[in-house]
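TL;DR need structure tokens for one chain.
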Amino acid sequence: MKVFPRGRRRLALLAPALALVLIPFSTGTASANSSPGWGDDKPDVLASCNHDSGSRKPDLCQYHEVNAWTALGKRHQASNVVANCAGTDNGTYAVNYTYSTNTSYSYEQGQSIEVSAGLSDTFEAGMKASSSSSETWTLGNTRTASSTITNTIRPGYKGAYWFAPYVRHSVGWLEVHYGKRVDGHYYWYYPGQGSSGIHIDTPVAWSDGSLKGELYWATWKC
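>> reply
TL;DR here they are.
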């Protein structure tokens, strides 16, 4: 008999950050289940697929991608601010910018999921591979864009670079099989069969491994 968790919650998209800190979900209760949205009446499937100590080892962990798309992410400041506040002529400055980001995993309302290398491989195996010869996405890899560009700043102004990365978004669900019944059943679907409760954001890279995105130069008055 298969069990389907009740309901589907609305998923919130996460913008990539300069440095991702993966924080295990906590409801503030005594529940020991680290799978967001599930209580102790269901198995801790993320711990099982992570092969965490003390968790039951599953026979199968399979990610099913329901939908995927690539989109330009949020802009992030990528250089120090360069100032020509006291100058009387245009100033020419060599400005170095750099921006790095990594894969993020979330479930509903921005709750992050802690993912090991093994579970990352499970998610990657279920995602549609890139069909482009110039673009790739690989879970768990940090991608970086950096360069030094010469730019001009008018007198009385400051300037800096912003970078917006392209992000591959994947939503889907996790299928988990156990060799023995766990909480009464062999098969479990997290957070629900056919749902889009798991959201994976991974940076898009060029064929040389560098981060793909859009660079923006902005100036403002001192």
